[in-house]
Design brief:
Helix content is 35%, strand content 14%. It is built from ten helices and eleven strands. Helix 3 runs parallel beside helix 5. This is Glycosyltransferase sugar-binding region containing DXD motif-containing protein.
């Protein structure tokens, strides 16, 4: 078992206003360079646990359409995978048991379910390893065993066009040389596939922990940059600047949409359970109709 004390390689963990464009260009080059990656490097042949983990804060408030998405991942049990979904209470208990009070208090400061899921996935994957999947992703049924055959961190790249307020398809932005002055390149924290103790996941967890601890008591921090994709992207950027060889410990998906379809027309996206409607706002945990 991993001890509750761990050493992480990272630069300044404080959330600061920095040159996001420089970071985006750095990430773009990494993403497009990853086209040359080997599918399974012999030196990283240790397997990742075949565990699919998900989170929904309140099972009594689980919409049918979200439940239908979750059911698709339960089908992986027939392929030899384990599947477990945690609610807020179970996730908090896990963090307290496997980490410590400090991490549990940070989890308690996550004011929205999306933020709670962000922090919990970092805790779980760092401690036990496996695969975290958001509950609004629907499994397509394609084989996924190969994603667990080596211990590289496996993540999905994203590209947002600020001019059109739309996402750029991976088939376009992952091509060598593809770029636009309005594009922002970053990494999603879904899926998050890694072996326990992964240094990037641990660094992202520590950065989120410190950000939550350093946040003023009466402030509600921005979700994406504190615990979500922004936090993971900044962590990868910082670690690669410190040690470029860490690139070899990551695998970048270019076709994750073939494995999982993100369902946008879900009922909860129209209310406060959608983090985009609740970012920086007090969240009510009352049952939604």
């Amino acid at each position: 078992m991993l001890t509750k004390q761990f050493v992480l390689v990272m630069t300044n963990p404080n959330i600061e206003k920095d040159d996001y464009k420089t970071r985006s260009n750095f990430i773009r080059e990494f993403i497009q360079r990853s086209n040359l990656q080997s599918s399974q490097p012999p030196s990283l042949s240790n397997e990742i646990p075949k565990m699919i983990v998900q989170f929904w804060d309140n099972f009594d408030d689980l919409p049918d359409d979200v439940g239908a998405c979750i059911e698709t991942w339960k089908s992986t049990r027939e392929l030899g995978f384990n599947h477990q979904i945690f609610d807020k209470q179970q996730a908090g208990d896990y963090i307290l048991k496997k980490l410590d009070v400090r991490h549990k208090l940070a989890f308690d400061k996550c004011y929205h379910p999306a933020m709670q899921s962000d922090f919990f996935r970092l805790c779980y994957i760092f401690i036990d390893g496996g695969c975290y999947i958001d509950v609004d992703d629907k499994y397509t049924g394609v084989p996924i065993n190969k994603h667990f055959d080596d211990c590289r961190l496996k993540i999905q790249p994203l590209c947002y066009d600020i001019a059109t307020n739309t996402m750029v398809p991976p088939s376009i932005f992952t091509k060598q040389g593809a770029n636009n002055e309005h594009w922002i390149f970053y990494f999603n924290n879904n899926p998050l596939i890694a072996k326990k103790g992964n240094i990037i996941v641990g660094s992202a967890l520590n950065r989120a922990l410190l950000s939550l601890e350093n946040n003023a008591a009466n402030e509600l921090p921005e979700i994406q940059s504190t615990t979500g994709p922004g936090n993971l992207t900044k962590t990868i950027f910082d670690n690669m600047l410190a040690n470029i060889t860490i690139e070899d410990t990551m695998f970048i998906f270019r076709d994750w949409e073939n494995t999982a379809k993100n369902e946008w027309n879900l009922s909860y996206r129209n209310d406060a359970r959608n983090w985009r409607h609740s970012n920086g706002q007090v969240y009510s945990s009352r049952k939604h109709q």
